[in-house]
Amino acid sequence: MNASVAIQVLPMSDDRTKVLTTVDAVIQYIQAQGLTYEVSAFETTIEGDYDQLMAVVTEVPKVAAKAGADSVMTYVKINYQPQGEALTIAEKTTKYQH
């Protein structure tokens, strides 16, 4: 595992139900990719091979659009380790879990 990505999807709509349905569709897509992931209140973190993660990042706005978003803002943070292993989600957060 040489990368981790935090991705936040913001469907642009005044309809809260539509926003939640769109975000749910994106999370379901991410879950189906077989990656290690963690959903939080503002973003979802995924980890794995850099190229595989970039393919997911490319697809996420399309998934949101197919789910009904008229417009979607997507924010991405990337941690890439070209040599060695990136810190895992667990290594970064386990000590803070309750």
TrEMBL record:
The Thiamine-binding protein domain sits at: 5-97
Regions annotated as coiled coil: none
Which SUPFAM superfamilies does the record associate with it?
MTH1187/YkoF-like (SSF89957)
Q: Which InterPro entries match?
A: MTH1187/YkoF-like, Thiamine_BP, UPF0045_domain
Query: Looking at the record's lineage, which domain of life comes first?
Result: Bacteria
- Annotated family: Belongs to the UPF0045 family.
Protein name (record): MTH1187 family thiamine-binding protein
